[in-house]
Design goal:
The protein folds into two domains: about 5-175, Peroxisomal Thiolase, Chain A, domain 1 (3-Layer(aba) Sandwich); about 180-324, Peroxisomal Thiolase, Chain A, domain 1 (3-Layer(aba) Sandwich). About 35% of the residues lie in helices and about 25% in strands. The protein contains eleven helices and 13 strands. The chain has helices at about 20-25, 35-40, 55-70, 95-100, 115-130, 155, 200-205, 215-240, 255-265, 275-280, 285-295; strands at about 5-15, 20, 45, 80, 105-110, 135-145, 160-170, 175-185, 190-195, 215, 245-250, 305-310, 315-324. The strands form four sheets. It has a five-stranded mixed sheet, with helices on both faces. The longest helix has 23 residues, at about 215-240. The protein binds coenzyme A (COA). Coenzyme A binds near residues 39, 115, 217, 220 and 223. Coenzyme A binds near residues 36, 155, 214, 220 and 223.
């Protein structure tokens, strides 16, 4: 195979220091460690501290990824940031990250696809590199979802956490990223949403009363069905068999959703990177966080084939097939 591709040179991640366990949540709402563990697999989540912004989490993950890649921030020609919890309305969190990295001039922008954000951002960077418009790209997923949570709503507050993950992509003559598949269907906008924004209900937003709302049951069913379909689409598109995939690196929303996708791939859970028990759902950060954990603990090795997939608000969903 010859041509121009994007290859992952290095990964990084960051989790805020404060940990909130299921037992801590038992003090806030009528719930139990048993219920949360059984329904979701989640045991704990990290929560960003006061004054700790999404761009701060992103910075720590980005620095690690650059170090692992053996590249300097000054050599980046593209920064793509996936987040649903930007520091400000504008400038983009990518620009604020660029400033914190102390670099100037390269293209920097945010991508908003909620929990599918990292797959969308990876696809954008991959296409920039394939097209020759970028050579060294930083792709970050970072979130402070705790700031969008109604801590009196037990149906949502137990599910989410804060964190960041990053990858450095460089142009290469072999994949790397084989393909990305992206989809969306705005008809489902109201099933998983923060129903206020700048042009709708700005007062609620300003007063800190804009929270995640979700019809959990319906989201669950749609996620399982949709992720099953995207696994087939990815395998067919690349002409590979399920047995060719070495690792599933899924979005970490719910252990039962992850298990259903692994079954679809006939992959034993030992070949699935699972972090949801420790991180909860960190939205756009969850896949690069999981990837970095498994790279650093030595599970994922160079040359192995990774299937990443995600489903989230929008609805959006997508996948990436990547040789690490
Ligand atoms: N603790 C205890 N009980 C809770 C609870 C909590 N934290 N949250 C909800 N319940 C209750 C409900 O009130 C309901 O009680 P009722 O039967 O008396 O009305 C009962 O548990 C069952 O609720 P239900 O929503 O049917 O549970 P579920 O099995 O669907 O599990 C989710 C709920 C949220 C865990 C599950 O639907 C889910 O994971 N959905 C997908 C969420 C997701 O991944 N979103 C992000 C996608 S990127």
């Amino acid at each position: 195979m010859s041509g121009r591709y994007a290859r992952i040179l290095g990964t990084g991640s960051y989790l805020p220091e404060t940990v909130m366990t299921n037992h801590d949540l038992e003090l806030l709402v009528e719930t139990s460690d048993e219920w949360i563990t059984q329904r979701t697999g989640i045991k704990k989540r990290h929560i960003a501290g006061p004054g700790e912004d999404t761009s701060d989490l992103a910075l720590a993950a980005a620095r690690q990824a650059l170090e692992a890649a053996g590249r300097r921030a000054a050599d980046l020609d593209l920064i793509v940031m996936a987040t649903t919890t930007p520091d400000r309305v504008f400038p983009s969190t990518a620009c604020l990250l660029q400033q914190k990295l102390g670099v100037h001039g390269c293209a920097a922008f945010d991508v908003q696809a909620v929990c599918t954000g990292f797959i969308y951002a990876l696809a954008v960077a991959d296409n920039f590199i394939r097209a020759g418009q970028a050579t060294l790209a930083l792709v970050v997923g970072a979130e402070t979802l705790s700031r969008l949570i109604d801590w009196t709503d037990r149906s949502t507050c137990v599910l989410f956490g804060d964190g960041a993950g990053a990858v450095v992509l460089e142009a290469a003559t072999a994949p790397g990223v084989y393909s990305t598949q992206l989809h969306a269907d705005g008809d489902y906008a109201d099933l998983l949403t923060v129903p206020y924004g700048v042009s709708q209900g700005y007062d609620r937003l300003r007063q800190g009363e804009a929270y995640i709302e979700m019809r959990g049951n319906e989201v669950f069913r749609m996620a399982v069905n949709t992720l099953g379909r995207i696994v087939d689409e990815t395998l067919e598109h690349n002409g590979i068999a399920r047995s060719d995939v070495d690792w599933l690196v899924p979005h970490q929303a719910n252990h039962r959703i992850i298990e259903a996708t692994a079954r679809k791939l006939s992959l034993p859970m030992a070949r699935v990177v699972v972090t949801v028990h420790e991180h909860a759902n960190t939205s756009a950060a969850s896949i690069p966080l999981a990837l970095d954990v498994a790279v650093r603990d030595g599970r994922i090795r160079r040359g192995e084939l990774l299937l990443m997939e995600a489903f989230g608000g929008g609805f959006t969903w997508g996948s990436a097939l990547v040789r690490y």
